[in-house]
Amino acid sequence: GENVEQHPSTLSVQEGDSAVIKCTYSDSASNYFPWYKQELGKRPQLIIDIRSNVGEKKDQRIAVTLNKTAKHFSLHITETQPEDSAVYFCAASTHTNAGKSTFGDGTTLTVKP
Amino acid sequence: NAGVTQTPKFRVLKTGQSMTLLCAQDMNHEYMYWYRQDPGMGLRLIHYSVGEGTTAKGEVPDGYNVSRLKKQNFLLGLESAAPSQTSVYFCASSYGEVYEQYFGPGTRLTVT
């Protein structure tokens, strides 16, 4: 089955700096890569996603890049703010697997004011 | 539009007791999922359903059963609770196979 590894497990940055979280996956058939943000005590919510026919996608301060050859994708947050502090999860899924997403173990991002 | 709701929000069980967690969605989604979330281990899939009347095993199905009698509801049952089932349980639903999953608020279960 699919295996998703996420690094780092914790990340601390100063407000205004950039943050990068990286994920690798094992199943070359995976074609959908969402990123979820989970604030303390809340539910995970999608912040950005990318499909395999696209190499990069951007939404304001958030961007995701995908390298299908190397089987890795990354989340980039620029100009970080204290409200970006949360746990971030990457996931990978494929239409051949009933849409089951395999999640990474999460990255706890702390943005220091 | 409530999205995905879960009941109860909190529950404490004694070892050996049984309970059912209810997930409901009002988005007419075909796909529904049950996850458990333990510290440092991300979200692990317990069972899932690709439509009314269907269920399938996920990554960690042992000790759990599910039913999807109605499209909008997905029930997770624990027949004989064990301390290892102490966790936060999230339900999610999705429009299709490779689309965003919408999560419920979670149920915090403690088994003593």
Number of helices of chain A: 0
Q: Sketch the topology of chain A as an H/E string, one letter per element.
A: EEEEEEEEEEE
Largest interface: pair, residues per side: A-B, 27 and 25 residues
What class do helices, strands and sheet pairing of chain A give?
mainly beta
The CA-CA distance between the termini of chain A, in Å, is 41 Å
Strand content of chain A: over 45%
Mean pLDDT of chain B: 95
> Poorly predicted ranges of chain B (pLDDT <50, ≥5 residues)?
none
Radius of gyration of chain B in whole Å, from Cα? 13 Å
Mean pLDDT over the full residue set of chain A: 94
Total number of strands of chain B? 11
Give the end-to-end Cα distance of chain B, rounded to a whole number of Å.
Answer: 36 Å
Query: Helical percent range of chain B?
Result: under 10%
Radius of gyration of chain A: 14 Å
Q: What about the largest sheet of chain A?
A: 6 strands, mixed
What does this entry look like structurally?
The complex is a heterodimer of chains A (113) and B (112). In chain A, strands 2, 4, 5, 9, 10 and 11 form a 6-stranded mixed sheet that branches. A 5-stranded antiparallel sheet of chain A has the order 1-3-8-7-6, with no helix packed on it. Chain A has strands at residues 4-7, 10-14, 19-25, 32-38, 45-51, 56-59, 62-67, 72-77, 86-92, 102-103, 107-112. Chain A contains no helices and 11 strands. In chain A, 35% of the residues are buried. Chain A is mainly β and 113 residues long. In chain A, a hairpin with a 2-residue loop joins β6 and β7 (62-67). Helices cover 0% and strands 54% of the residues of chain A. Chain A is globular and about 45 Å long. Chain B has 112 residues and is mainly β. Chain B contains no helices and 11 strands. Chain B is globular and about 35 Å long. The model of chain B has no long low-confidence stretch (mean pLDDT 95). The interface between A and B is medium-sized, with 27 and 25 residues.
